[in-house]
């Protein structure tokens, strides 16, 4: 597969998935629905609230959505990266990213709008895992070097 | 073991002059002067795959021009302003119409109870239909190649990839709007039960939802792999993933077959094409329009396949000391002009991959040649197949360089080696070529002075162009062209290897010392060792130590304002072109290929220096 640098590709997937996640969670604040409500009979015509843990943290109080937004924003800040995070060594941790993306997968799969974000986050996590297995390391932020290709 | 076996396959027509002549006699070329010119190409190794790719993309991107604000770039340049107004005007127009036609349709009163979200989703859906049609239009390469010369005044047809990306960005945005609106629609259908369905049933069991989610997933894969960084790292990842477009398009054309927009309780599906009744399914039926670019594109791909299968023969492989392989291909049905490029495929190495390379031969040549450096997996595989893997090439290069050190007087750096496949069991591999693509460079002959500027890898198309100019010069068929100024701005010394010999011969072949001027700028920072090396070797030498040309290499970035200013003064005072009358307007055409930052600086210089007697024109990526 050419000379694909997997963590650089994973970065793009992680950013895409996280932006989707934040946007989905934002809409999840207004249209609250537990994705898995078709399991175990919480979904009924004409609908209504039912006592279940996920109903209370997604529908009654949008805890999951808020957490997703915060997590998504943090991943985006880590990936772009935010100048404050750039200097930290943790910014270059691939394992941290895998963990965060798996968390994001778990959170987004819970609510109605988050399905695609969950699939994409999971794919991003797989890509990062591949990078980790290949032993790739992320380079320290380059100092004040000129941009390559400028003549 | 592999390499030693390969070595025995080589026949070394070594570096002595007599052998060189023998080679040329045997290669059946038309004239002796031509032979000497072609021998110039011995050093002239261009375009490894990644490099050519970056050239192709560099020449089409002016988007990331630095040093000006977003507003200046998008709104103060008249062409870009016109594009923005028309392109986004159409988008918002369609959105508004889509919204209105949904909201005002009495038959859809039921759906309209969903309110804003359904109006937005319908508007955005219509916009996406438009984008889905337009995304393929800039990819109709053969049609663009035919219509381009007639339409250059209307739109920059060379910017087809740029346009493709604009449509893609727009598509991503409207897909977000459309999807978001539908998420709201379906949850409201579930809550209000205007149809007896749950949101997830619509999402995951009906055609609209399934194809929609599937298209989003394909977009996710296609957009992320299309990033310029990924494309350069691993072209295959981009190339194969982008062919998911086939399934994307199938999804797009069948997106409305579930009859979501209807005035009946249940979808009015039929057992025959198009499998729903147009009486009750009240979508835009946009597939009737959007499918045409898809059909034409598919037809074009079939045609390209047919064209690629026409008789093609790899007639010769030459290996140059700098490590480049020159493939000379004979294909009678292949017609091209200077400055164009082609796709090449070697089925033995990769059944499906097509790799773009700049054509380095002139149309007058009896063959089509490309210069390939072994930099990527494909090009290395090709080297191995031809028996000149990287290790062999390194050995040959060293041998040739040694020969040249003894032979310094002739000013060369060793000669190329022709691979002899006649006496071995392994024949040359089959190759297929597809093309040509890119604009012809015939404009050069409609101006008095042609300024050719290649930056970095952007110099590749000028190989063919300089050769073509040379041929026409021999025939006395230069049109209005009186002088050629060739600029090559490049970053590091090793890249000089490519062009060195070509330029050397072109320079030597000039009867009129004023016809062609070669200006080479080296922009790299120079270390102390190199500085002294140059200082010691340069002083009093006839040839430049770096390029072995008579013209001296200049260090640092060229100051375009001064260069053009001086050129204007020289033209105005009548020194530049002998016999030019001051009352006639002199046309100076600039042809540039390279990164956008440089393009902008040069364009400014041409605009500032145009006067009543000298007209400077500028064409970026015109090749």
From TrEMBL, chain A:
Membrane-spanning residues: 12-31, 51-82, 94-112
Keyword terms, alphabetized: Membrane, Transmembrane, Transmembrane helix
UniProt xrefs under InterPro entries: DUF7727 (IPR056144)
All residue ranges annotated as the DUF7727 domain in the record: 1-136
Keyword Transmembrane helix tagged: yes
Record has DNA repair as a keyword: no
Pfam families, per database record: DUF7727 (PF24853)
Name used for this protein in its record: DUF7727 domain-containing protein
TrEMBL record, chain B:
Keyword Transferase annotated: no
GO biological process: defense response; monoatomic ion transport; superoxide anion generation
Domain of life: Eukaryota
Pfam families: FAD_binding_8, Ferric_reduct, NAD_binding_6
Transmembrane segments: 83-100, 120-140, 167-184, 204-225, 237-256
Molecular function GO terms recorded: superoxide-generating NAD(P)H oxidase activity
Residues annotated as domain FAD-binding FR-type: 301-443
Bilayer topology: Multi-pass membrane protein
Subcellular location: Membrane
Protein name: FAD-binding FR-type domain-containing protein
Lineage of origin: Eukaryota, Fungi, Dikarya, Basidiomycota, Agaricomycotina
